[in-house]
Design a protein that fits this description.
The complex is a heterodimer of chains A (61) and B (226). Chain A is mainly alpha-helical. Chain A has one domain. Helix content of chain A is 85%, strand content 0%. Chain A has helices at 4-31, 37-60. The two termini of chain A are 26 Å apart. The relative contact order of chain A is 0.06. Chain B is an all-alpha fold and 226 residues long. Chain B has one domain. Helix content of chain B is 79%, strand content 0%. Chain B is globular. Chains A and B meet through helix 1 and helix 2 of A and helix 2, helix 4, helix 5, helix 6 and helix 7 of B.
């Protein structure tokens, strides 16, 4: 991706994407339900399993 | 990273939604998801075979983004929305072609791509299956996931110009985790009644799977020392 204008174009698209996402992020932060420590632990275990699985795949390839 | 979640439905489970309606949305979502994944795979294969100019693949990807941002919200409650979803997934698949051709050119390329596909499928099935069987509500993750997306997008913008391989790897790893979280989040919203439009649900799930696949492919490509 050597062309500076391609880079600028892609950066502009990502910035627009972030601008579109920002209201939803604000809404969920202000009004979204709060999880308990047990629920977050549950999510952490699931994501840790994903990490281990990906590490396994990287070792296999 | 093209997830747009400006959704008009309530983000929280609504009382009164029948189990029948929820099951209908779930069934339609997974049926359409399966069809669009196949269609996208076909367009990706065609693109990888013809090896179009990189600019054309970028235009296809940007066109898909334009569809999801500006067209889908207008047709998501009509039958025309199904055509838009197929067009959207087809364009994204076409945009993936040059990347697949690039990885296929490596000595172990075909194995890397196949492993990324299998890994993506396994992660999606495992996480979705967990939510469908336990019926747990993961809507509490919403704020964390959307802020995470904003942070990752920020790093992606910076890395477009800095082009640091280590940062690129960290971004891919973060996207794998975020997409895994989003699979839990979106599946939970469907079965708990927070999402009632199967077209929106399908596009969200498709983006989760696509971003998970591309990031996993990038990580495996790094792991493959060839």
């Amino acid at each position: 991706m050597d062309n500076i204008w391609v880079k600028i174009g892609m950066a502009a698209v990502f910035v627009f994407m972030a601008w579109r996402l920002f209201p939803a992020a604000k809404h969920w932060l202000e009004h979204g339900p709060r999880g308990s420590s047990k629920e977050w632990l549950n999510v952490s275990i699931l994501l840790a399993a994903v990490v281990l699985f990906v590490a396994f795949l990287m070792s296999v390839v | 990273m093209q997830k747009d979640v400006l959704q008009k439905t309530s983000p929280f489970p609504t009382t009164g939604d029948s189990a029948l309606q929820t099951n209908k949305v779930l069934r339609n979502t997974y049926a359409l998801l399966a069809a669009t994944l196949i269609f996208s795979a076909v367009t990706a294969a065609i693109s990888a075979w013809i090896d179009p100019p990189r600019m054309l693949a970028l235009v296809a990807t940007f066109g898909a983004l334009g569809l999801i941002w500006f067209v889908l919200p207008k047709v998501q409650d009509s039958a025309a929305g199904i055509g838009v979803v197929f067009l959207f997934t087809g364009l994204l698949g076409f945009g993936l072609g040059p990347m697949l051709a690039h990885y296929a050119s490596f000595p172990n390329g075909a194995t890397t791509i196949a492993t990324a596909m299998g890994g993506t499928g396994a992660i999606f099935l495992a996480l979705s299956g967990y939510v469908l069987t336990t019926k747990k509500d993961f809507s509490f993750m919403g704020g964390f996931l959307f802020v995470g997306l904003l942070v990752v997008i920020g790093f992606m913008v910076v890395n477009i110009f800095l082009n640091i391989p280590a940062m690129s790897m960290m971004i891919s790893a973060a996207i794998v985790l975020l997409m895994s979280g989003l699979i839990l989040f979106d599946t939970s919203r469907i079965i708990n009644g927070g999402e009632t439009n199967y077209l929106r649900a399908t596009t969200s799930m498709f983006l989760n799977i696509l971003n998970l696949f591309t990031s996993l492919l990038h990580l495996l490509g790094i792991g493959n020392s060839d």
